[in-house]
Specification:
The complex is a heterodimer. By secondary structure, chain A is mainly α. Chain A has helices spanning about 5-35, 45-50, 55-80, 90-115. Chain A is built from 4 helices and no strands. The chains are: A mainly alpha, B mainly alpha. The interface of A and B includes residues 8, 20, 38, 48 and 79 of A.
């Protein structure tokens, strides 16, 4: 575990918490799909699709996307660090990965805007 | 998995008995990179490329889309549970074998569950759930 009160320490915990949240979402995802399939023979996906297209679910999707990006971009930074690159520039690397993530979330928000405003 | 941070000066005493580079450690990085490809494909296919439900359902009966989803399923379950194993190993020191068995079983069950969901798209009903 990195030393407390450093940027690496916060990134370490962000990686852990985001990873656990994504694992939790995987099971939620499988549960939802199974629930749709439960009444055998009649899979009314369209009814479910109507529900999950409501703005609140779009916001939840965007939050999920942001959490995944935190994990993906920090993970890429860690792989880069494993090769010995950007270690002393660790502050910059964390800042850069989060900036890239913020831009990607912004693009996602703009893409999903039609669904958000209904 | 407990990812050693670049700023960390030494390996923590909790993991001093394990070699600094293990298969779990290497595979976590490879599966992570693989996930990036699979997840991008999954999001593109299921959410952007004509996201109408019936279209997705009919596409899922074709080989390439199934390969993508089964590949994603196996890799994501491995990566997720291997990560969980790393976290749990820090607290459950002496019970690593018990932990490995449990997580392996959980992983197999999860993959079978996921494939069963895909099975429902191929044969219009799941094999295991009712």
């Amino acid at each position: 575990m990195p030393h407390k009160h450093t940027r690496g320490y916060k990134a370490f915990w962000a990686h852990r918490v985001s990873g656990l949240l994504i694992l939790g979402y995987l099971y939620l995802h499988l549960c939802l799909l199974s629930a749709v399939l439960l009444p055998s023979g009649s899979h009314d996906f369209n009814a479910v699709a109507k529900v999950v297209e409501q703005p609140i679910f779009i916001v939840a999707d965007l939050v999920l996307f942001a959490i995944i990006l935190v994990h993906v971009l920090n993970g890429l930074r860690l792989i880069v660090a494993d090769f010995g690159w950007m270690i002393r520039e660790n502050r910059f690397a964390i800042w850069l990965s989060m900036a890239v993530g913020a831009i990607m979330v912004l693009i996602a928000v703009l893409t999903l805007m039609p669904h958000l405003v209904g | 998995m407990a990812t050693p941070s670049p700023v960390k000066p030494e390996v923590s005493t909790a993991r001093s008995s394990t070699p600094p580079v293990s298969w779990a450690w290497i595979l976590q990085r490879f599966s992570g990179l693989l996930l990036l490809v699979f997840l991008a494909g999954h999001l593109w296919v299921e959410h952007f490329m004509n996201a109408r439900v019936d279209v997705i359902a009919s596409r899922l009966t074709h080989g390439i889309y199934d390969t993508l989803d089964i590949g994603l399923l196996i890799v994501v379950v491995y990566h997720g549970l291997n990560g969980l194993r790393g976290i749990l190993k820090e607290t459950l020191e002496g019970r690593a074998v018990w932990l490995d068995y449990t997580l392996s079983c959980l992983g197999i069950v999860t993959v079978v569950w996921g494939v069963d969901i895909l099975w429902a798209f191929w044969y219009h009903r799941p094999f295991l759930i009712f």
